[in-house]
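> tool_call: predict_assembly(chains=two)
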Amino acid sequence: MSLVESFRIAMRALFANKVRSLLTMLGVIIGVSAVILLVAIGTGVQGQVTGAVQGLGSNVLFVFPGKINTGGGSGGAGFAGASGKPFSSSDAQYLQMRLTGVDAVVPMAQGSATAKYQSKSVQPTLMGTTDEGRLVNSATLGGGRYFNRSENDAAARVAVIGYTVKTQLFPNVADPVGLVMTVSGQRFTVIGWFEKQGGGMGGDQDNQISMPIGALQRITATDRVAIILVKVSNASQVDFVRSQITRFLEPRFGDQVTVFSQDQTLGIFNALLGTLTIMLAGIAGISLLVGGIGIMNIMLVSVSERTREIGIRKAVGARTYDILSQFVIEAMMLSVTGGVVGILVGAGGALALSPIVPTTITPWAIAVAFFFSAGVGVFFGVYPAWKASKLDPIEALRYE
Amino acid sequence: MATGSSRFADALGADVRTAAGPVSTGPASPRAVLELRDVTKTYVLEGVEVHALCGVTLDVFQGEMLSIMGPSGSGKSTLMHIIGLLDHPTSGTVSVEGQDVVGMTANQLAAVRNKRIGFVFQSFNLLARTGALANVELPLVYAGVSASERTRRAREALEGVELGDRLRHTPSQLSGGQQQRVAIARALVTSPSIVLADEPTGNLDSRSGIEVMALLQRLNAAGITVVVVTHDANVARHGQRIIELRDGEVVRDAAVTDRLDASKELVQLGMNTAAGTDAVGAKAADAG
């Protein structure tokens, strides 16, 4: 019997039990669409972070306190995740003084606090930098301005707010510049706000308040600096500047300093987010597995329900292989159809979510989901099909 | 295949009344299409050995119509399964068209069944929710015949059992007699060596039963070898030879002297019912 014939028989059997076939497919549809959607989100976020890091320019060096392995050995790789003695503002000032061939040395510190305006309150991330922080920030100002040198030096209570902070704290104000909010009980004047930009490095950049690092340190009551960004004037001098940084910081920190180029930083983020994406896909894969078990279950029901049909087919000359292929193909059609619908649903969901979360639909995720679902059909269809093919025709014909 | 299809065409082309006319006395050539030698079959049921067949030897000759009779428990079903190549004997030899089938694998047996044996079952055993044409095509599907050729031959077979106007009807849309005729068309469509009918009239009213027997006699008259397995002596009397089984042994093997001609029975039935209902009415009842 030809494969075309097997397909025809399988199709007929599936159409004979439309609701059952649809419900069985639903398991695969949910599994595949979950895989596609979660991988799309993972890849999308990864892409955006990559964009954010790349937006800083290729000649930015990231200086972390402590020793970080790019191999991913130190579990908490990240801006503040490294162990070791933290940097302080004076370390940044020291580098600024000593380094040659650099445009800017920008210390960055993070904190969190409650920001309030009238009856509204939000929980944003506080980002403390210097006025030169503008040079390493890819966000676009929607209104107002960034803080200047004198505000920075005076640790003035001025703030540039992210889009989420703006819409939640000042929902009815088109331009909140000049308004005064409280951050951790201290009065801050809004001097500017950023356009919407989605997720990014160090969390949601829209839910952020940027301020002079001195003002942040007053709130967090510490002198700590999480990371120092060094913008090198000339790309050819990156290695030279890197060796300078290591040398200048050695007396204070020994070898407990890590200097990453943009590529290395990207490598860390990609490793981190890549692992996350695979984990998400794995969790979604479990639901695909459950869908596969659903197929196996319904195929077993189908085989026992059609015992007599199998007997008739065998009596008139069907070989073991004919019965086997008939049922395997039936299971595969369930899973592949479910897979295709799941891909469409997952891709549609990813598109629908794209205004909220960055999503990227990758061909490999689609290919993997498709072949995995087809594999699920074969794997879970083989046992029921084998059972059917081994039926004794006499017993099968006698079956009521 | 050439001889098969021409023989088949004869059967289909023949008119009911004339073809089954005088009962022939037997095939001219005594060539055996099926030979059983000292066949035994022993089952083990819950630790107890059951001897279903104890040394059965029989030949089915080319072109004959053989009835295998016996009460339930006589080993009749077991014998039918072995003749139909659905089961292996415990000992003894079985050969079809001179080909020994005892050592064959399940797949090899399936191929021989497909080519040589046409089955007609008591409960019709048609695929549900499947049209008559597709049901008749089924053996050809497994024989690897192309779709267009399949349809052509299946249509021809259905026309031969006078169901040419019901090609798309599913079993639930057909009467019992019509379903059995579809089953007969399916049995014939591969031009087999033997048509094996297991209680072909068992699930039918008497009139439909006689119609089915008339059809089998007509096919036989056209040269097709028919084996009917039944417990009913009247059904058995439509054959030329009766083999009677009892407790797994052949107790009688004799030619039928008072053979019934189903087409004549139909004519009689028609006269008996003519007073009340005419033939059209009977046909309508059959169709319903």
